[in-house]
Amino acid sequence: MLKSILVLITLSLFLGTAAWLFFIWAVKKGSFDDIERPKYRMLEDDDEAGVPDHYNNKEKGQPKK
Prior knowledge:
By secondary structure, the protein is an all-alpha fold. Helix content is 51%, strand content 0%. The relative contact order is 0.06.
């Protein structure tokens, strides 16, 4: 029983250290630099986003071929 407890403690310390190192790596990579920007990105006015190219032809009013 003592042996299984020691194995579980060692395993939990290893997993905790691995999670901490992964978090430190993510912070250094810049994953948490700007957490407010993505929720406002959908509110930006992109006039030509998602509009097919042939709708932007204003010369003749007809789709491009």
